[in-house]
Design brief:
The protein has 865 residues and is α/β, with parallel strands linked by helices. The chain contains 28 helices and 35 strands. The protein binds ligand LLP.
């Protein structure tokens, strides 16, 4: 390492500030990393300032030294001295005069102890950083990187903050940090690489003050602002900020890019990686702030900078804070009463309490108190409540937790939050507050509710397309992928390996391509479920003959809903012997007659056929589809249960149906319920089995229970799969209670969705306002799901699969409707006319729902055997 070998820096060379925390400066190995990083930045042409914390544990040791009995001081001091000398020895430093000087000054302070004085305490504690930075300067110089030690107190001057008490003034000071070109050039004249202390500053009298919790990050930010650095790098032991606390949500994703306000909001509402205070100096001076992992220096980490222009609107993070106290104030006299709020808030001020969130109704105001901003002991709260009781009825609700969604432009995302609201709707929410800066939405709930809530909400946000984990410019790898053994959750889709072949068949587009090995693999997985006696494929999902053949060969039956579907199965020699079901809805009489002629088991779901066409069914076995009163699924339009849906016999007509069936000579051989499509919760089917079984017990002739289809496939990156093993276990368990009934499933999507892709060619590109349109020849006529259900299909540029995704596109088709959008705000490589786009997960309800709209021809299809 020899930085002096490179050409000297120009006086106006950019500054880079690097900050290292306690564990990063505690061992000689870590100091080698610091040395390397500082040398690398210098080699890139930057003037470098390294800001360090005290060795890990030393600040606490110094605090303890301040507080301990006089007799224990010598011992406490000896341990601190010993720790630094040991590190100096490991560093093999010949020259430790600077460190020795600070050890001597610490010793002198201890001799002249004035523990009751805050200034003495501050000066003692400042020695942690003075010592670590002196050691660092000596180590870097001894290892070939001349490094100038500077006293942070020369540069950082605390500002006067009105109403700040003495304790906060000395132990939690704030610094005036406007860009100071004079300081920058004075330092530039003294060297190229510098080291200084975090956590400490001076006040107007030249005395030492401290910067409070997270003080070293804050120091680095102050230095960055003063020097107008090209960036501040905070080196820590995690890769950056994440979409949620990774200890609770292992699938939380690295946030690669945040603007200052979002980062501030995330830091304030729970994340511990960055202290909220260090953001505003950087924001004011427009200095980018990077968070990087010392153990994984190659990772990009989090960059906090002014907002980039092209990003998908997205929730960035979900965070939680415990220990929140709510104060609810109720008075009938409050409505339009002048000054009520002023009066009650004056009491909060008197008790030194700062209010966080506020909710108000006609006769009630509820506010929250955050423990990180307040000294919340029960005495303070009780005293406040006693005073408030003189002007209103008071209720203190604690312990509560605040769960906050953070993201710029929260209001524009509200329509995507119905799943999240429903999750909260199941529990008691005391207060909902939307910040006036449109950056956060907070729910205050009982603290006990927090367990397991964050992972659920994180998943719901991804599923709703509100947390846009697909945008690779914003969201990096998951915590699990980075630190949990490196395993990504999802395997690489089949079409990666088939790229050349797909590009070949894309000569004529739009074109669906189906991968039969994937379908067979899915079929085998379902057939392997020991609790399931028969699987029928709902061929409305995709009636391609090659798919029907493959499934028949795998031993799967067929669920049909029209004479056309029955005929499609009958047309195939391989399939026509397979078990078949006919499950129509509001079908004409002739359809039932057709099915009976073909010898297919049919399902009725209303009284009408029995009342009006009894002769058709006499002597036959049928299935009865019931409505269990609720629907489920990925969109309102595919939920097929409950009063608002047209499916199933309502249970209040159940007895009448049984009577009619008996009178008409029909046997009810099975019960059926299908509540909707795209369900990812394995608990759903066992519940339906239990309900159908207890109904079946009232009939007597029932042999099988058909739980419908609806097995979902996750579509957004990072969403979890339906847990088949859990499904099997839970079904086996309910079946043990009702061993007399066979269990049938009739999935469509699960078998085929991932096995199909839609290939399209780019037709034109267009820039309009802030948006980039990418037009292709597949529109809503080829794939209607995005337009109809807001469905999410992953889109890639197959011609440029390995290029970096840099541009945010609106991917649209050629149809004359504004709804003809296949994907909004998709990050893709810069694309041109003729490129082949691949629209993934198009095997289910893609081709089967395509139309000739605008008289465009139907998409072609190909099969990969
Ligand atoms: N059984 C019955 C009675 C059904 O109505 C359906 C689907 C299924 C089984 C198969 O459901 P699956 O396993 O595929 O979820 N076009 C919509 C889906 C509509 C589903 C209609 N019924 C979509 O593209 O999401």
């Amino acid at each position: 390492m020899n930085a002096s070998a490179s050409a000297p820096l120009a006086p106006d060379a950019p500054w880079v500030v690097l900050k290292f925390g306690g564990t990063s400066v505690a061992t000689v190995e870590r100091w080698r990393t610091i040395l390397q990083l500082a040398a690398a930045r210098r080699a890139e042409g930057a003037r470098v300032l390294v800001v360090v914390s005290a060795l890990s544990g030393i600040t606490d040791a110094l605090k303890a030294l301040c507080a301990c009995a006089p007799i224990e001081r010598a011992d406490a001091l000896a341990k601190i001295i010993e720790r630094h000398r040991a590190l100096a020895a490991q560093m093999q430093l010949a020259h430790t005069a600077e460190m020795d000087r600070w050890l001597a000054s610490l010793q002198a302070l201890v001799v002249a102890a004035a523990p009751e004085q805050l200034r003495w305490q501050a000066t003692v504690q400042a020695h942690g950083e003075l010592l670590s930075s002196s050691l660092g300067a000596a180590f870097m110089a001894a290892n070939g990187l001349p490094t100038t030690w500077i006293d942070a107190r020369e540069a950082l001057l605390a500002r006067e903050v009105p109403f700040l008490n003495e304790r906060a003034r000395v132990l939690s000071a704030q610094v005036q940090a406007e860009p100071d070109p004079a300081l920058a050039s004075a330092l530039a004249a003294r060297g190229e690489v510098f080291i200084s202390q975090g956590f400490i500053a001076r006040d107007g009298d030249g005395q030492t003050v401290l910067l409070g919790r997270g003080g070293s990050d804050t120091s680095a930010a102050y230095f960055g602002a003063l020097l107008r650095a090209s960036r501040v790098e905070i080196w820590t032991d995690v890769a950056g900020m994440f979409t949620a606390d990774p200890r609770q949500v292992p699938g939380a994703r690295l946030l690669q890019r945040l603007d200052y306000d979002e980062a501030q909001e995330i830091a304030t509402t729970g994340a511990k990686v960055l202290h909220a205070r260090c953001l505003s100096p950087c924001r004011r001076a427009r200095v980018p702030l990077w968070v990087k992992d010392t153990q994984h220096p190659d990772l990009d980490g989090t960059v906090v900078a002014p907002q980039p222009t092209e990003v998908a609107p997205s929730i960035k993070a979900i965070s939680s804070r415990r220990g929140i106290t709510l104060v609810s104030m109720e008075t009938s006299g409050m409505w339009q009463q002048v000054g009520f709020l002023a009066d009650v808030f004056a009491l909060f001020k008197q008790h030194g309490l700062s209010v966080d969130l506020i909710g108000s109704a006609e006769t009630n105001v509820t506010v929250s108190l955050d423990p990180s901003e307040n000294l919340l002991d029960s005495d303070v709260v009780a005293a406040l409540a006693a005073d408030l009781a003189k002007v209103c009825r008071v209720k203190v609700i604690a312990p509560c937790a605040a769960v906050t969604l953070v993201g710029r432009g929260m209001r524009s995302m509200l329509h995507r939050l119905s799943g999240v609201l429903a999750e909260f709707g199941r529990e008691r929410v005391h207060l909902i507050s939307q910040s006036s800066n449109n950056l956060n939405l907070t729910f205050v709930v009982d603290e006990a509710m927090l367990d397991g809530l964050l992972p659920r909400l994180h998943e719901l946000l991804i599923r709703a397309g509100a947390l846009r984990t697909d945008d690779v410019a914003l969201f990096g790898p998951s915590w699990q992928a980075l630190y949990g053994g490196g395993a990504e959750l999802k395997q690489v889709p089949w079409w990666h390996a088939q790229r050349a072949r797909l590009l070949e068949v894309a000569q004529a587009t739009p074109r669906y391509v189906y991968h039969l090995p994937t379908i067979r693999e899915r079929a085998r997985a379902l057939r392997a479920l020991t609790s399931v006696d028969r699987v029928y494929y709902a061929l409305k999902a995709n009636p391609h003959p090659a798919i029907l053949r493959a499934l028949a060969e795998e031993g799967i039956g067929f669920e049909c809903v029209s004479p056309g579907e029955l005929a499609a199965v009958d047309a195939l020699a391989e399939a026509r012997e397979s078990p078949r079901l006919f499950t129509p809805n509001f079908a004409p009489r002739g359809d039932y007659a057709d099915a009976l002629r073909r010898g297919v088991m049919l399902t009725l779901d209303s009284l009408h056929p029995l009342q009006h066409w009894p002769e058709l069914f006499a002597g036959h076995e049928i299935m009865l589809r019931v409505d269990l009163g609720r629907g489920l699924g990925h969109h309102d339009k595919v939920r097929t249960g409950g009063a608002a849906s047209k499916f199933g016999l309502p249970l209040d007509q159940f007895d009448e149906f049984l009577t009619l069936a008996r009178e008409r000579g029909l046997r009810i051989a099975g019960l059926h319920a299908h509540l909707g499509s795209g369900i990812l919760d394995a608990a759903h089917w066992p519940l339906v089995f239990g309900q159908l079984a207890s109904l079946a017990d009232r009939i007597g002739s029932v042999r099988c229970l058909d739980l419908g289809g609806g097995l979902g496939v996750p579509s957004h990156p990072g969403e979890s799969e339906l847990d088949l093993a859990a499904l099997d276990t839970a079904l086996a368990e309910v079946k043990r209670a009702y061993p007399q009934y066979g269990l049938w499933l009739e999935p469509g999507r699960w078998l085929v969705a991932d096995a199909g892709v839609l290939l399209a060619r780019v037709t034109q590109t267009k820039r309009k306002g802030a948006l980039n349109y990418l037009g292709c020849d597949a529109g809503m006529h080829a794939l209607i799901r995005p337009a109809l259900y807001d469905a999410w299909h992953h889109i890639v540029n197959l011609s440029r699969l390995d290029d970096a995704a840099t541009t945010l596109y609106q991917v649209v088709g050629p149809i004359c409707e504004s709804g003809d959008v296949l994907g909004a705000d998709r990050r893709l490589p810069e694309s041109v006319e003729g490129d082949v786009l691949l629209i993934a997960q198009a095997g289910a309800y893609g081709e089967s729902m395509a139309s000739h709209y605008n008289l465009r021809p139907l998409a072609e299809s190909s099969v990969i055997e």
